Amino acid sequence: MGTAIKDTRVIITGGANGLGFMYSRHMLLKGAKAVAILDIDVATGTNAVKKLNDEFGQNRAVFISTDVSKDDQLKASFNKAVEHLGGLDIMINNAGILDDAKWSLMIDINIKALIQGTYMAIETMGKHKGGKGGTIINIGSVAAFLLTKYVPVYCATKSAVVSFTRSVALSFDDVGVNIKAMCPGPTNTNLMTSDAYRFPEYIDQEDGVKFMNAWPLQKPEIMAKEVMRFIEEAPNGAIWVNEIDSPTTCLDIPEYTSWKTPV
Ligand SMILES: NC(=O)c1ccc[n+]([C@@H]2O[C@H](COP(=O)([O-])OP(=O)(O)OC[C@H]3O[C@@H](n4cnc5c(N)ncnc54)[C@H](O)[C@@H]3O)[C@@H](O)[C@H]2O)c1
Predict the structure, then answer these.
(1) Residue 218 CA: which ligand 1 atom is closest?
(2) The CATH number of 9-251 is which of 3.40.50.970, 1.20.1250.20, 3.40.50.720, 1.10.3720.10?
């Protein structure tokens, strides 16, 4: 029901560091033909690609400097990547920040760029345009389902990822592209471990840092292996959650009518 990774051409946003770098490495471990990393961090991205090419062979990874929050940059980099790869089989919309003090920018990165990435990938791979289909992985978060006062906009962007993915996946019969969302639980990357103050102004910032530091963090390697399984096994429209100390689960989200309470 999923997609075999071997010999695929992959674009990943936010792949210079953290989970995105791990996904890139595990895609190549699984035999992906080549990975294009679109990321804003030029120094880390250049180094990441060097590491991957040293491990897997020249030209298996390419870095394209991109601020995904800028529509024009994302479009130009996406086109450059497709040209470099000679096509596209898998798009991973992974770039994200967790910073409710910069909520407008966070919306642009976490959801606007993810929608743009999804639409460009459908346009490129879609059977309605003569393509041969493909796979799009959107990165959500368990935060999509959390109730917390500390990062309300982060939670909202991730709920939007889940909602958008479920709805757009309904067009599978029209475009032949599998679209699904993986929702990681707290994982040991800069996104969780930075002590930066990044909560709404009215929140006690020290309390916010304590809230972030209280989460047990899973290892990025474990998350990366589960994302590979997600690509290979999960059907179109699937929403999976992976958290520390519990097996990966698929979410079967009920019709809203079953939550209704007369008032
Ligand atoms: N770490 C976690 O606990 C966790 C949990 C759930 C979901 N996620 C999601 O996983 C994804 C990756 O997060 P991570 O934990 O690896 O974070 P990270 O901070 O380690 O890595 C994020 C990457 O995105 C890049 N990036 C940031 N802004 C960008 C921009 N404007 N344009 C292009 N690239 C940009 C960064 O340079 C970095 O390489 C995010 O979408 C995040 O919301 C993370």
Answers:
(1) 3
(2) 3.40.50.720
Active site residues: 154
Q: How far is the CA of 257 from the centre of ligand 1 (A)?
A: 34
- CA triple 87-27-45, angle to 5 deg: 80
H helices of the chain, in order, are 18-29, 42-56, 71-85, 103-107, 113-125, 152-168, 172-175, 190-193, 205-213, 220-233
Residues with CB under 6 A from ligand 1: 13-14, 16-20, 39-41, 66-69, 94-97, 109, 139, 141, 184, 186-187, 189-192
**Residue nearest atom 37 in ligand 1 by C-alpha distance:** 41
- Ligand 1 pocket, mutate which of 189, 211, 248 (most atoms under 8 A from CB): 189
Does the structure show a pLDDT above 90 at 66? Answer: yes
DSSP per-residue string spanning 78-96: HHHHHHHHTS-SEEEE---
| pTM of the predicted model as reported, rounded to 2 decimal places | 0.98
pLDDT in tens, 72-100: 999 999 999 999 999 999 999 999 999 99
Each domain of the chain, given as residue ranges in start order, spans 9-251
Q: What is the pLDDT of residues 21-35, one digit of tens each?
A: 999 999 999 999 999
Q: What does the pLDDT read at residue 196?
A: 78
